[in-house]
Amino acid sequence: MDRQFQYILIRRAAAWCGILLVGCAPLLAQDAEPLPPPAPPEPPHAIPEQGPRPFKGRPGPPPNPLTPQEHARLKEVIDKLPPDIRALLDRNRRRFQKMPEERREVLKNYAMEARERMQGELDRIVLENTSTLPEAERDRFRQRYIEERRSLEKSLREKMDQKRSSALPALLEKLRTEFGIAAAPSPTPESE
Fold first, then answer.
1. Roughly what angle, to the nearest 10 degrees, separates helices 68-80 and 3-17?
2. Is the N or the C terminus of the chain less surrounded, counting Cβ atoms within 10 Å?
3. How far lies 90's CA from each of 39, 82, 105, 161, in Å?
4. Residue 171 confidence (pLDDT) above 70
5. pTM of the model
């Protein structure tokens, strides 16, 4: 199954179910090209009638935006994910469903803005650097840039995590000294 289609299905299901894919989307879309920016919303009179929609106070789930075929393929994709990723998706879905509606909207808007920023940056870089290349070469450049950028971002995150973990003990010691807190005893292996 094509990775971009998997990613699209999971994103659509995430929007419907309220799943936060924080930390999972890069794993699922490692080979996928970035999605085009979302189309501007159509005016209300142009939206086809889909039957009655539940109003805010009415119990029950919102209408499913996935077709039955998309839903079946999404289920297949999710079933093929490693158990730890499935557990993460499920945990994030439950956390998201427990959040107040305002918080959910803030998170959705933040994710959408981040995607739009990344897509805009990618479009600008491709336009600035590949104006003389044929379309096929431009697409290869775009894909290669995405791969290299992911690799760079991953290595920067790892370096930052290492620096943070090495700096935290000194920070804790400084604060303990400043506040007069006795150092926590080091765990010692029990001898028998």
1. 100
2. C
3. 29, 13, 19, 26
4. yes
5. 0.47
